[in-house]
Amino acid sequence: MPGKGESLYWQAAFDALHAYQVKEDEMRWGWPVWPEQYQSVDSPAVKAFCEEHTDEVDFYLWLQWLAYSQFAACWQESQGYDMPIGLYRDLAVGVAEGGAETWCDRELYCLKASVGAPPDILGPLGQNWGLPPMDPARDRCPRL
User: Fold this and answer.
1) Contact between residue 93 and residue 118 where contact means Cβ atoms under 8 Å apart
2) What value does the mean pLDDT take over residues 38-64?
3) Nearest Cα residue to 8 out of 58, 73, 49, 55
4) DSSP-derived 3-state class of residue 86
5) For a Cys-Cys bond, which of 7, 34, 47, 142 suits 38, CB 3.0-4.6 Å?
6) CA distances from 76 to 65, 68, 134 (A)
7) How far apart are CA 15 and CA 8, in angstroms?
8) Alpha-carbon span 136 to 144, nearest angstrom
9) What 3-state class would DSSP assign to 128?
10) Which residue would you say has higher pLDDT here, 4 or 90?
């Protein structure tokens, strides 16, 4: 997966650490409820975890490579069927509060806010999606 480097590694590290945390306690849904030493991507405990669990981190790197390779093959196949648009990709409207993006770069997000949808005929009270928005005052690119 060309050009993914550091952000890909930290996604895999997060996935391995998340799997470990959920195995320890099913209620550890994301980094905000993990033990404190794992809540910061830069902590010595996270570094030690990654060094001690290289096989698990590598497994999640492999899964990302596999998904990338399979999607690329599907896209290539679609081009043979004159599909000018190719394949439709889902575009997420935000990130999970306890996900890898906020774990790696929480200063980029307004963690006490949430995006959603305004009231309409189907949802008269509106919708709270529980997704923290990016802080518009930040002018730097996220790590992930």
Assistant:
1) no
2) 98
3) 58
4) coil
5) 34
6) 16, 12, 34
7) 11
8) 17
9) strand
10) 90
